[in-house]
Amino acid sequence: MRSHAMAAGRHVLWIVGPALGHASRCLLIARELRASHGIDSHFIGSDRHGFHARLLAPDFGTTDLGCAPTDHGRFADGVLAHARQSRPGAICIDCSPVPWMLAMPPLPAPTVYLTNHFLSHGPARTLQDDLWQQNQVPWCAERQSRGLRAIASARALYEASLVLFCDPSSLVPQSPQPPANAQVIGACCWTPAANLPAALEPLQDVLFVSFGSTGRGTIPAEMLERLARVGRTTPRTVVRIDQGSIRIDDQRLPLGGFVPTPGILGRSGLALTHGGTGSTYQAMAHGVPTLVWPAHRNHHVLGERIEDLGIGVLLDPSGWTDGLARFETDFDALVSRSRAHAFDLAQGPAHGARLISELLRA
């Protein structure tokens, strides 16, 4: 734990999930809050992957609650105790609400939920919806035992004073309109200040493969072989990001820190991701056509949105060859549309920080 004194009401308390995508996008907004608005932050949550210590603690106070959000009663009690003690001006949440928010009474400050439109307000079924269906009876009983109001679905757990969709605007449908308290701020993708390894400097038109901290590790050999040849007469180089290393085809390069993703995407002809918003949105920002090889339902939903937009393809694990065939056939059109949908990654954190600062001043 790292902490420092902060004035009550003039700082933000962040409740952050353990995955890299959660920690990194909150870091960007917190930095912008401090630099542009003079508002400090403190982070609490579960750090089972070590990203809070590696990313957040160098800049901000952090507290590991010592339990995962799946230990929902204990995690919710820890959050509530910390919020009452620290008296923040606002509480920002970037952590899947199921199941810990089921045990959470109203928090003692205005709340901001950072999420993705396709998770909280989209029409497609999500992992959180599935978990609700499987556990609705015991979870509702626990809420009743804690004296909390009944809810009709997991989507109700995303209710907040302000909801921020951390998505490119092109991925958010124009209809139906989101609630008045919800805003699209743009993607928030952290990129490390790291130099590109010398072995990557001369490469061009590579296949970029990244499965983040939550993706599946196994890729069918045929899939990689065919992707390496899409639109080419000779196979392209495969650059794969693994935990703590980069692989260039069969050569592994050890890394001392995080991967310099923008430098690799700038040399990429296509990207294969697990459907996490970090690597997928960074590929979108660089105008790189993207294939999604999902590890769970939420990744699948984002893959569907990418395909609907015409900038990539979902590779359904139950029948991925059909999706790959579509990608091969439409590759030139996918490249053109992906370049047209490229965007600036700097806008999301600045927009989010401005809205949070306005909430504190209200």
Annotation keywords:
single chain; 362 residues; alpha/beta; 7-stranded parallel beta sheet; globular
Strand content: 15-25%
- Please give the order of strands in the largest beta sheet: 3-2-1-4-5-6-7
Q: Determine the mean pLDDT.
A: 92
Radius of gyration from the alpha-carbon trace, in angstroms: 21 Å
- Class from secondary-structure proportions: alpha/beta
Distance between the termini: 31 Å
Low-confidence stretches: 1-5
Tell me the major beta sheet.
7 strands, parallel
Number of helices: 12
Overall strand count:
14
Query: What sort of overall outline do the alpha carbons produce when their principal axes are compared?
Result: globular
Task: Please summarize what this structure is.
By secondary structure, the chain is of the alpha/beta class. It has helices at 20-37, 51-56, 72-86, 117-120, 127-145, 221-229, 261-265, 277-285, 297-309, 320-329, 331-340, 347-361; strands at 11-16, 40-45, 61-64, 90-94, 111-115, 162-165, 182-184, 206-210, 238-242, 245-248, 251-254, 268-273, 290-292, 312-314.
Describe, in plain words, how this protein is organized in 3D:
The protein is α/β, with parallel strands linked by helices. Helices cover 37% and strands 17% of the residues. Strands 3-2-1-4-5-6-7 form a seven-stranded parallel beta sheet, with helices on both faces. Helix 9 links the parallel strand 13 and strand 14 (312-314). Helix 1 (20-37) crosses helix 12. It is globular and about 65 Å long. The two termini are 31 Å apart. The model is unreliable at 1-5 (pLDDT under 50).
